[in-house]
Amino acid sequence: MSTVLVASRNAKKLAELRRVLDGAGITGVDVIGLDAVAEYPEEPETGATFEDNALIKAVAGARATGMTCLADDSGLSVDALNGMPGVLSARWSGRHGDDRANNDLLLAQIGDVPDERRGAAFVSACALVTPSGGQTVVRGEWRGTLLRAPRGDNGFGYDPLFVPDDDVAAGRSSAELSAAEKDSLSHRGKALAQLVPVLRSLAG
Ligand SMILES: O=P(O)(O)OP(=O)(O)OP(=O)(O)OC[C@H]1O[C@@H](n2cnc3c(O)ncnc32)[C@H](O)[C@@H]1O
Ligand SMILES: [Mg+2]
After folding, report:
1. Which positions in this protein are listed as binding substrate (predicted)?
2. Which residues are tagged catalytic?
């Protein structure tokens, strides 16, 4: 049995990562969270790209624990803002992890952007780093359109503002999708799907 540490301090994101990995039915791999290991200092997420930041987090986790470590760096890339908030998504309002303040600021910034130019993409980069230093980085994207007011209570972050382009979403925001629906469509689900074969091979 090999163990993979999933390194995220965001409880709702961690729950999604766990759910998708559990759902993939990878046998012989035990997935644990940061609560199961001794605390180690967090690296600042100073990378210019989602991939850089995912690697920063996964390398730190693998170094500190000696375990294989998986980390996600993600965010919302808004067309009318030239890709921002991007890697600054978690702290766009200046307060890390304040979803409400982040959403309010984003809505105000794009208040004058007409419906046909309110496109955006959720992006997730997931990095897997082994104790011997092996690195795999994958990326998933999820296109949609931004609402003018939040809708729905599921998910986290910018989910209440984002209506996926996918027909099956039928105009619901990603905070109005069930957990299983979000996982099957989301940037994170798409990124992790590419890591499943790598995780299977770790199990030997
Ligand atoms: O770095 P960790 O500890 O994993 O947790 P974090 O919340 O700081 O995570 P990120 O640095 O990757 O920032 C991602 C932010 O992007 C947004 N985001 C990412 N995925 C999302 C999703 O599936 N739905 C809604 N918002 C999302 C949300 O605001 C997150 O806080
Ligand atoms: Mg972060």
Report:
1. 8-13, 74, 156-159, 182, 187-188
2. 73
Domain count, the chain: 1
pTM: 0.97
The pLDDT-based confidence of 53 (bands split at 50, 70, 90) is very high
Q: Is the ipTM of this complex over 0.85?
A: yes
Mean pLDDT for 131-160 is 97
Q: What is the CATH number of the domain that holds 40?
A: 3.90.950.10
Which ligand 1 atom is nearest residue 155's CA?
A: 24
Domain extent at residue 83: 2-203
Ligand 1 mutation target, pool 51, 70, 74, 76, most atoms within 8 A of CB: 74
Q: What is the Å distance from ligand 1's center to 204 Cα?
A: 31
Which string of DSSP letters, residue by residue, matches the chain? -EEEEE--S-HHHHHHHHHHHHHTT-TTEEEEEGGGS---PPPP---SSHHHHHHHHHHHHHHHHSSEEEEEEEEEEEGGGTT-BGGGGGGTTSSTT-HHHHHHHHHHHTTTS-GGG-EEEEEEEEEEE-TT--EEEEEEEEEEEE-SS---SSS-TTGGGEEES-GGGTT--TTSS-HHHHHHHSHHHHHHHHHHHHHHHHH-
Q: Is the CB of 183 under 6 A from ligand 1?
A: no
pLDDT digits (tens, 9 = 90+) for 124-136: 999 999 999 999 9
